[in-house]
């Protein structure tokens, strides 16, 4: 049996990383041999000259690897005695023998995660496909006025103040907080000052911040059933007990037994329930506000896409009705601008705002001041409102095209749509015996992305069969042909 030699190993593996410089490759291969203890401490390496001859390379190529390993402490020179592997193995009581090999973490990933981590990964809802027919909740980013945005951004970057290039503080860029306070007051009847607004990285970060500052182990949250999977998963990841509450035509509808056990949090989408599209009635809103004030509950209002309403003016926020300071109002620019922007905001009760500003900076070290400054200018100069008006018309026309396509393929008593008064999606109800999960899989094979309605339910005994269809990011000319394909997938499971 031939004895292992460094030169043989390097000749065998040197060219297995095409495009990587050989000097770096020599360094990496030798380093791995030392870490794997194939080359134990006190092993003498060939001289750089001899190794270069054996490999057919220049001496400088080999010297690079040796010198890098010397600098990092893997090797040492002993005068004229040569180059040796140093003794860097930690001395631990009960340590496994040097020949022992660790199992890769990937082979044991499930057990390596915490219980909370396993639950989060197992129930993840994010999809790899975030564009095309019929991905829900995604705006048409091709229609964004990027030239206007770039001009504003370039003006800011020409001479940015030093403060905008260091860590953020104060809850966000002050002009953006001021612009948002004015915009929300007019468009959503939100009652707030700029100091009550904290700029975040989106809805998920807003929920996470609320949980970090307001929840303790054992706290519970009412969530709409069905509801947005991301919100439910973020609450569960924080260790909050999920208590699903059913819906009726007026919105969240807690039963007497649930009302008898007040939760710490009530998570709602009152202006456009996700995914059903229900609008919470005035009486139900007043009931929730009174209940929250009486029992000390925090209402988290997710107002994710109310700007796009096709049957009259956008509805006023729940926060604007709150006189007991129990509502935390969340919004995002992902639907009105583009998801890649990753900007959202929290409107907080006045008494909580200072703590949330501190918590935001302590946990996330917020920044992105130039980006926030661009967003502020975009709002202040009227571009934001103009963009929303233009997109509302475009999405409204696409909604009509999709509704006509549905009517052309199915009679209303078999398949019917609902929740299309606002937002970027509608819900297509299927017959109870139709497997919406199977329909979604079949559609995926056709290149059509839809979400099964049953997947949004926490309690499957309550679930209904249906599909959540996004139409905003589908070109108008492609909507009818794409739905014709989807109709084939539906019929295959009727």
From TrEMBL:
A GO molecular function assigned to this protein is: pyridoxal phosphate binding
UniProt cross-references to InterPro entries, sorted A to Z: Aminotransferase_I/II_large (IPR004839), HTH_trans_reg/aminotransferase (IPR051446), Tscrpt_reg_HTH_GntR (IPR000524)
Any idea what this protein is called?
A: GntR family transcriptional regulator/MocR family aminotransferase
Is the keyword Coiled coil in the record?
no
Under the heading SMART domains, the entry gives: HTH_GNTR
Q: What is the organism of origin for this protein?
A: Duganella violaceipulchra
The cross-references to CDD domains, in alphabetical order and at most eight, read: AAT_like, WHTH_GntR
A Pfam family reported for this protein in Swiss-Prot or TrEMBL: GntR
HTH gntR-type domain location: 20-88
Q: Which UniProt keywords apply?
A: Aminotransferase, DNA-binding, Transcription, Transcription regulation, Transferase
Where, if anywhere, are coiled coils annotated? none
